[in-house]
């Protein structure tokens, strides 16, 4: 039996946004909030924290990524503990990476009965929208009764960042991280070319020119999804520009000129900087900085990099740090470094806990038990180690305080793990030999200079501009992607003129006006 569906107007936006991202990468609304707020709790008793656990609860938890070969074995150990402690078992379902843009929005739009999921302001349908549309359970009052330890574990300021209209709809991560975009490159090649570091676009161009002249592979060898990374480079390296809400950050989105001027937003497409960037992207494409088949390629830049078929890849900092072990295994003796686009202009943004949250579906039949499970994973180290690290002695061992793979470990037969970022807690994190050791010192430096996101806690309601947003997404999925990869059929300046005209017809001005209208009374939560 299907549960509550999200508003059909939102579904239209989600599906078109998902279609865009997929391309780049290869109800009743009036009653919905009431439904989330008044979800019937499980019967109270004198069992676990006042919750009746006499009846077994079988929960479904959706995570991103694919299932590791030993995930079922790890989950069996988790379920042994859950069954004994709170009479609950967990089934984990997966949304594989290429399917996130389409299947994640459908998870909520379809009315499927499930219990737990990852959520984020940067997801294909963002956390604040899910909360506003009544797709999530309001856990504000439930926390004291069901998960007091969890509530105490997370600072009040972090809880504050999760609130939508004064209510809490998700449990935020307690993991310190930064995720600015950038370019991972090979240090051995850098030294070969007589260079010390890439710290600017000019440095990056010098490195890429040398790669084209001296190597059998290109500087970047990815697919259409790299268009968004090129746009991020433009925003991050231009003045004090910051991303603004209104249009998905998985496409060419809106921006503001500075954190102080956050209530005024604009489309970068209408700036001279954007036109100049489009010209530059054509120059880079013509130079061979990426493959001629970039729009149709199915292999990502990291895969090509590890196959020694490129000199670098575009990603965000946390991903590069986490890829350290895999990169070293694939390319023995090769060290990498990272050019962070936003660093020179001092625009590294702090990640707030809400950026990775665990949420409970409004269609869950066991919301209280679901919250108890989250509490176990985030406050009990034995649960934490299982969901984050696997089974000790099989997926990992501890040596001198460092997590390593056991002797004889074979990823194809012994590998396992879950993309449960939302459940991370700094106090349980241990050093690992697969993560770049520079992480702690790098983040310590950024802690000193990082800025707050001025839109933290803002929820954009697209109801008045759903048609326009869908039309803009369609324009971005075609001409926008082509512009950012230098692959337009026309001269880039003429293509930019066409792009601007298409955005006008799609309703970009109406969307900007709606965003600014909603921002008028907004005060950042920082």
Key features of this structure:
526 residues, alpha+beta, D-Maltodextrin-Binding Protein, domain 2, five-stranded mixed beta sheet, 15 strands, 43% helix, Bact_solute-bd_prot1, signal, DUF3502 domain-containing protein, DUF3502
Structural account:
The protein is α+β, with helices and mostly antiparallel strands and 526 residues long. The chain has a domain at 56-174 and 352-428: D-Maltodextrin-Binding Protein, domain 2. It has helices spanning 8-24, 29-37, 71-86, 100-109, 127-132, 142-146, 148-153, 156-162, 187-192, 201-214, 226-237, 272-287, 301-306, 317-322, 324-330, 367-379, 381-389, 411-414, 439-449, 466-484, 492-506, 508-519, and strands at 44-48, 57-64, 88-95, 116-119, 163-164, 167-168, 170-172, 181-186, 242-243, 255-256, 312-316, 336-340, 357-360, 397-399, 402-404. The strands form five sheets. It has a five-stranded mixed sheet. Strands 11-8-12 form a three-stranded antiparallel sheet. A two-stranded antiparallel sheet has the order 5-6. The two termini are 41 Å apart.
* Through-space gap between termini: 41 Å
Low-confidence stretches: 15-47
**Helix coverage percent of residues?**
40-55%
Strand content: 5-15%
Q: How would the global form be characterised? A: globular
Question: Which class best fits the helix and strand makeup?
Answer: alpha+beta
What is the level-2 CATH architecture name of one domain?
A: 3-Layer(aba) Sandwich
**Count of runs of 4 or more consecutive helical residues:** 22
CATH class of one domain: Alpha Beta
Annotated CATH homologous superfamily of one domain: Periplasmic binding protein-like II
The neighbouring-strand order within the major sheet is 3-2-4-13-7
User: How is the biggest beta sheet arranged?
Assistant: 5 strands, mixed
CATH topology of one domain: D-Maltodextrin-Binding Protein, domain 2
Radius of gyration: 23 Å
Q: What value does the average pLDDT take?
A: 90
| E-strand count | 15
Protein name: DUF3502 domain-containing protein
Keywords: Signal
Pfam families: DUF3502
Organism: Paenibacillus odorifer
């Amino acid at each position: 039996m299907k549960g509550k569906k999200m508003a059909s107007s939102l579904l239209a936006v989600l599906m078109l946004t998902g279609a865009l991202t997929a391309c780049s990468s290869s109800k009743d609304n009036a009653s919905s909030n009431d439904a989330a707020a008044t979800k019937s709790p499980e019967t109270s008793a004198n069992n676990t924290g006042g919750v009746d656990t006499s009846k077994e609860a079988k929960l479904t938890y959706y995570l991103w990524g694919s299932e590791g070969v030993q995930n079922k074995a790890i989950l069996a150990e988790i379920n042994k503990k859950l069954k004994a402690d709170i009479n609950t078992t967990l089934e984990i379902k997966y949304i594989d990476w290429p399917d996130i843009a389409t299947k994640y929005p459908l998870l909520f739009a379809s009315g499927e009965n499930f219990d737990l999921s990852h959520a984020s302001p940067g997801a294909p349908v963002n956390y604040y929208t899910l909360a506003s549309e009544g797709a999530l359970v309001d856990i504000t009052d439930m926390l004291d009764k069901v998960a007091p330890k969890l509530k105490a574990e997370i600072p009040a300021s972090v809880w504050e960042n999760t609130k939508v209209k004064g209510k809490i709809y998700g449990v935020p991560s307690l993991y310190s991280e930064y995720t600015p975009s950038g370019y991972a490159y090979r240090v051995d090649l850098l030294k070969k070319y007589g260079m010390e570091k890439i710290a600017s676009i000019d440095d990056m161009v010098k490195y890429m020119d040398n790669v084209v002249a001296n190597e059998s592979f290109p500087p970047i060898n990815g697919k259409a999804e790299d268009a968004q990374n090129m746009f991020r480079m433009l925003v991050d390296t231009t003045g004090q520009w910051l991303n603004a809400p209104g249009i998905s950050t998985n496409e060419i989105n809106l921006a503001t000129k500075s954190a102080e001027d956050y209530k005024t937003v604009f489309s970068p497409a209408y700036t001279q900087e954007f036109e100049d960037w489009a010209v530059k992207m054509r120059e880079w494409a013509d130079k061979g900085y990426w493959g001629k088949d970039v729009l149709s390629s199915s292999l990502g830049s990291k895969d090509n990099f590890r196959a020694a078929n490129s000199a670098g890849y575009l990603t965000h900092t946390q991903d590069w740090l986490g890829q350290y072990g895999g990169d070293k295994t694939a390319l023995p003796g090769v060290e990498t470094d990272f050019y962070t686009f936003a660093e020179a202009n001092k625009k590294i943004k702090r990640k707030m806990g809400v950026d990775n949250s665990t949420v409970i579906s409004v269609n869950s039949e066991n919301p209280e038990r679901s919250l108890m499970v989250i509490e176990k994973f985030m406050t009990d180290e034995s649960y934490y180690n299982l969901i984050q690290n696997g089974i000790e002695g099989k997926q990992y061992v501890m040596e001198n305080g460092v997590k390593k793979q056991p002797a004889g470990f074979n990823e194809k037969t012994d590998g396992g793990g879950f993309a449960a970022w939302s459940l991370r807690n700094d106090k349980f994190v241990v050093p690992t030999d697969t993560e770049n050791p520079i992480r702690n010192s790098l983040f310590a430096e950024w802690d000193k200079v990082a800025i707050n996101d001025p839109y933290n806690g803002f929820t954009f309601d697209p109801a008045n501009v759903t048609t326009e947003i869908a039309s803009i997404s369609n324009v971005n999925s075609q001409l926008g992607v082509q512009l950012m990869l230098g692959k337009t059929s026309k001269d880039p300046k003429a293509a930019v003129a066409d792009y601007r005209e298409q955005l006008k017809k799609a309703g970009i001005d109406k969307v900007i006006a709606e965003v600014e209208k909603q921002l008028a009374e907004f005060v950042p939560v920082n």
